[in-house]
Amino acid sequence: MSKIQKALEKAKETRDDIFDNLMFVSKTSKDFEESLTQHRKDKREGTLAPVYLQTRKLPADFQHLKQNHIIPDCKGSAAANRVKILRTKILNRMAKEGKNTLLITSANAGEGKTLTAINLAISISQEIDRTALLVDADLRKPSIHNFFGFEISEGLSDYLKKDMPLSDLLVSPGIEKLVILPGGKALTNSSELLGSPRMESLVKELKERYSDLFIIFDSCSLLEYADPLVLSRFIDGILIVVEAEKTTKNDLKRTFELLKDKPVIGTLLNKLRD
């Protein structure tokens, strides 16, 4: 039995869901450390990174968020605690190696990658010494702004195509230490822009300039477009979202083949039935 099949079988046996029945499966068989690696101290003045201070404030309606299966406060509920488990496993794995950029993708559309990216970013923003930047890099069909109820027409695509200042595009949704970079106008040539020197420079600057910042990129599905492969050249880690009883073994096999030699940290099995 292959490693992929073993991971899926283990997921079905345990039924250990994250939120809306999710399960994180490490790429390796080793358990993550139980405690988080001590976060790096921000050497800049003040407690928040400048990228957080230079944003537009568009407070989201928390009731609207909850209707969209978003957990805005990460407190109290079982679902919030499960997201924290996912957060802890990912941060343990990546912080230990000094990494702070994560790409979230899936084999096919509609498997839950965007919702996973949003809830994970919110949970990471609750960490004492971290700010989370959520980037909508699905430039073919940007949707993160819809989950938050924003009416926004400009974002990452405008930064890449029109040379707009990043500070004009960042949004604070009213959740402390969470910043969103919307996708902006949908594009058909998104692969070329995501692989451009300007995009590479943006990721590099964000990675190196702000010590407390963790960046999550929501990308389009891997088996439909080349965008995740292109963007993966600049990213520290990749999380693959898999929908139970929908994503086929062949699709998952093709996904791992495409991501061979890429920094895949694990898979998230989504929508498990009790």
From TrEMBL:
<protein>
    <submittedName>
        <fullName>Non-specific protein-tyrosine kinase</fullName>
    </submittedName>
</protein>
<keyword id="KW-0418">Kinase</keyword>
<keyword id="KW-0808">Transferase</keyword>
<dbReference type="GO" id="GO:0004713">
    <property type="term" value="F:protein tyrosine kinase activity"/>
</dbReference>
<keyword id="KW-0067">ATP-binding</keyword>
<dbReference type="InterPro" id="IPR005702">
    <property type="entry name" value="Wzc-like_C"/>
</dbReference>
<feature type="domain" description="AAA">
    <location>
        <begin position="104"/>
        <end position="253"/>
    </location>
</feature>
<keyword id="KW-0829">Tyrosine-protein kinase</keyword>
<dbReference type="GO" id="GO:0005524">
    <property type="term" value="F:ATP binding"/>
</dbReference>
<dbReference type="Pfam" id="PF13614">
    <property type="entry name" value="AAA_31"/>
</dbReference>
<dbReference type="InterPro" id="IPR025669">
    <property type="entry name" value="AAA_dom"/>
</dbReference>
<dbReference type="InterPro" id="IPR050445">
    <property type="entry name" value="Bact_polysacc_biosynth/exp"/>
</dbReference>
<dbReference type="InterPro" id="IPR027417">
    <property type="entry name" value="P-loop_NTPase"/>
</dbReference>
<keyword id="KW-0547">Nucleotide-binding</keyword>
